[in-house]
């Protein structure tokens, strides 16, 4: 990444960052074809968020956008491995640059088979800590809800989930039924209708 691009990404406003991220998602993450999703459902398209979240410019843009959406009293950000790993790390790093350091937690799908056998990796938080769950793509919503369940089992409070893309296939409704606020930077329609 050259110095000019880096400078643009660190000074761009939210609308500009959102446009940059939309272009990155369309260019690198969205593909059409025949796919089976983690839910088992078949789909004519797939969004591989890691094609964007693991790029330096993608991580910086995502970190800045999501950090700006966090409630002021957020104690940590968390997400289910593997899709959320680079997202929570990016937000945590951006928070440090903004002199408001927020730790990142990574939630395993299975407990660690040795040592503490923990489901959650990252700093220990105080009981009642307010954690925002981050996700790359939400379809049915079950992955992020699994993260919420692991966090609440540890005594943390989760009242919000933020995703990069909402496939609009039931996730928002599931979260609403659980009393959890949900935000997505983009709907699948915005991605599919984008024209460069």
UniProtKB/TrEMBL annotation:
Lineage: Bacteria, Bacillati, Cyanobacteriota, Cyanophyceae, Pleurocapsales
InterPro entries in UniProt: OPRT (IPR023031), Or_phspho_trans_dom (IPR004467), PRTase-like (IPR029057), PRTase_dom (IPR000836)
Amino-acid positions noted as binding orotate in the UniProt annotation, renumbered to this chain: 139, 167
PANTHER family: OROTATE PHOSPHORIBOSYLTRANSFERASE (PTHR19278), URIDINE 5'-MONOPHOSPHATE SYNTHASE (PTHR19278:SF9)
Pathway in which the depicted protein is active: Pyrimidine metabolism; UMP biosynthesis via de novo pathway; UMP from orotate: step 1/2
Keywords assigned by UniProt, alphabetized: Glycosyltransferase, Magnesium, Pyrimidine biosynthesis, Transferase
Protein name (record): Orotate phosphoribosyltransferase
Species this protein is from: Stanieria cyanosphaera (strain ATCC 29371 / PCC 7437)
Listed EC numbers: 2.4.2.10
Purpose: Catalyzes the transfer of a ribosyl phosphate group from 5-phosphoribose 1-diphosphate to orotate, leading to the formation of orotidine monophosphate (OMP).
């Amino acid at each position: 990444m050259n110095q000019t691009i880096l400078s643009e990404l660190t000074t761009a406003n939210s609308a500009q960052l959102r446009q940059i991220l939309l272009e990155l998602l369309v260019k690198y993450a969205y593909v059409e074809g025949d796919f089976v999703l983690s839910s088992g459902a078949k789909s004519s398209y797939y969004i591989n968020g890691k094609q964007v979240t693991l790029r330096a410019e993608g991580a910086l843009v995502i970190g800045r956008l999501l950090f700006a959406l966090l409630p002021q009293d957020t104690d940590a950000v968390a997400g289910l491995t593997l899709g959320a790993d680079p997202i929570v790390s990016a937000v945590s790093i951006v928070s440090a640059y903004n002199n408001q350091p927020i730790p990142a937690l990574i939630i395993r799908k299975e407990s660690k088979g040795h040592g503490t056998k923990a489901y959650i990796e990252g700093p220990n938080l105080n009981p009642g800590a307010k954690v925002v769950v981050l996700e790359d793509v939400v379809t049915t919503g079950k992955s992020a809800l699994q993260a919420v369940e692991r966090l609440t089992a540890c005594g943390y409070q989760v009242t919000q989930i933020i995703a990069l893309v909402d496939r609009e296939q039931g996730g928002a409704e599931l979260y609403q039924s659980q009393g959890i606020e949900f935000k997505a930077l983009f709907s699948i329609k915005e991605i599919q209708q984008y024209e460069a």
